[in-house]
């Protein structure tokens, strides 16, 4: 999914830049993934910059490769898949640009930057770095479905996606990572872009929240990923692997919208979009283009631009990652 959400990220970050925070053991965040990671990093830093983790804004690597990365670096790229270009092309998949920005590519960028990140730091270079791996998988599934694969065919790639994420985590551990947050996959079938582009005439393809079931591929990926995290945690006891969730909180928002402050009649409607109900999503009239307006009360909306959630939703998720219940263990439990 190629979308610009820079405006959204800046919107979250800007008012909070430059505000100091309490000390935590983390001095930097290094993150990998797709645009959800971009935002997660933003939200974590934003929530924290006032009081929690005490970290500055994390600059994106691709925006300026010579930026000051002493507080961390964000390698995540909008549209990035977990699977690399060679693999996807080998499977005859349509690959949406930007290409060569997969997790494997991001890890290569990290390895290139490592000497400068670790300059003068000694052996324990990443001892106080919080690594964030994911969300990943959404763009792979987008690629499979855009390549006219059936949902069952798409589901068959899930173990390969989980292998790729798992290999990525191991690679970070081999570079000295001591704290790795591994995020699960969002309920892909609840995103307005997916609901619009892959709409089905068969009611049985939708769940009770109105989301596309997609052969339960996101649930399957999250299940396999959780199993894999347990295996990795046993294999590498001196690294803390934190399993973080997007899936469960988003389903909770859909299940009890008003409990979380959302308007129950707009949970599947794009706030900043066009085209009207049921999803208010039109890929040619994307949020950010002239004339595309945000809804009247974004703080009561769940879906921002058809691909990403609203600030209100990210704030709740970030809070659940920091304090629980959406991270195991909660990040703040290991931060001090
Ligand atoms: C980089 O940022 C850190 C704070 O995160 C600061 O202490 C340091 O002086 C900066 N380095 C340069 C070269 O600007
Ligand atoms: C590309 O992905 C495949 C399958 O996940 C993997 O076997 C291969 O090593 C990857 N290539 C690179 C250069 O990372
Ligand atoms: C990809 O397409 C080529 C040419 O049609 C075909 O020979 C090959 O078997 C396909 N590969 C896969 C994995 O489907
Ligand atoms: C993508 O990466 C592959 C492998 O490194 C390379 O062969 C290819 O030229 C790259 N494509 C682009 C457009 O950069
Ligand atoms: C997928 O199928 C649609 C409708 O049959 C067709 O228009 C489109 O070109 C196909 N896309 C690919 C990548 O095969
Ligand atoms: C929820 O949104 C609908 C559609 O925009 C609106 O008509 C309704 O007044 C909103 N409900 C509340 C409680 O704000």
From TrEMBL:
Transmembrane segments: none annotated. Keywords: Glycoprotein, Signal. It comes from the Eukaryota. GO terms for molecular function: hydrolase activity, acting on ester bonds. InterPro entries: GDSL (IPR001087), SGNH_hydro_sf (IPR036514). Residues 1-22 form the signal peptide. The keyword Signal applies. Belongs to the 'GDSL' lipolytic enzyme family. PANTHER family: GDSL ESTERASE_LIPASE, ZINC FINGER FYVE DOMAIN CONTAINING PROTEIN. This is GDSL esterase/lipase. It comes from Lolium multiflorum (Italian ryegrass).
